[in-house]
């Protein structure tokens, strides 16, 4: 996808993945939750439950209840709830610990199922529904890792994190994250009602985009050797001897997405966001210097062994970023597809509906 330097990506998911105006959202949600809580407190629950379970038409009501329970993620506004929950949980209710640069490329795991309303005529999860799960997984990752920077940019007038390069003054406007594009490669089907996990991690970044890779895995097929978040230290891990267990035979799908950060109409360099979140170590010359605005990319880091989980200094971070750019470069090559549309200059086959 091509976009002007300070333009807006014209992608369907752009508006659906915005975390803009977050400060204005919290009071609205608080009032709504408070109103629902008061209404729930006023209801005579014992009488209501008894009427539901024993009154006329109970069989139909129970069947409908089971249908809703097993298909809740596909109901109206369920996607909105999942997004808002992920944002509020990491941004408001649970303060994520400061994990430092070592957490930058580590995955965030979320779990879900394939309900009947996501199943196609082959009795497998429909390919189109993978993208809704990706929205949720990326939101968990970004809201967790980038919480400090999101807060700073949402209140940029005071924090002065993002400045207008022409005036040197803080940029005015709401903070937003926009999805530029996403690609998903399908490997193995997900069966009806099957539980699966999404492992999302930062892959790399350049002067504009933050790239995220997501793996769709069967539930329990992979377990990390450790948890960086102290609250998960009691969750079962695995031994290092299982580190290369033929994942290509287990992965359901793999996706790559790219995010752009905005304050008002100004694009924020991903390194600025990562640095303010405490995920980048100090680097000589900084992370936004050089002709490509990704630091001095002429420095030789070929001696870094990425298979060895050693100290995450700036050279190791840069080596991992360059490794991710090998995949991102191929991903960006698909942007040329936009130029292949001819607008019907050479005719079309027909027009049919419904679409």
Automatic annotation (TrEMBL):
Top-level lineage group: Eukaryota
Pfam families: 4HBT_2 (PF13279)
Residue spans crossing the bilayer: 21-41, 61-85
InterPro entries, per database record: HotDog_dom_sf (IPR029069), THEM6_lcsJ_thioesterase (IPR051490)
Keyword terms, alphabetized: Membrane, Transmembrane, Transmembrane helix
Family from the record: Belongs to the lcsJ thioesterase family.
Record-given protein name: Capsule polysaccharide biosynthesis protein
Organism: Trichoderma gamsii
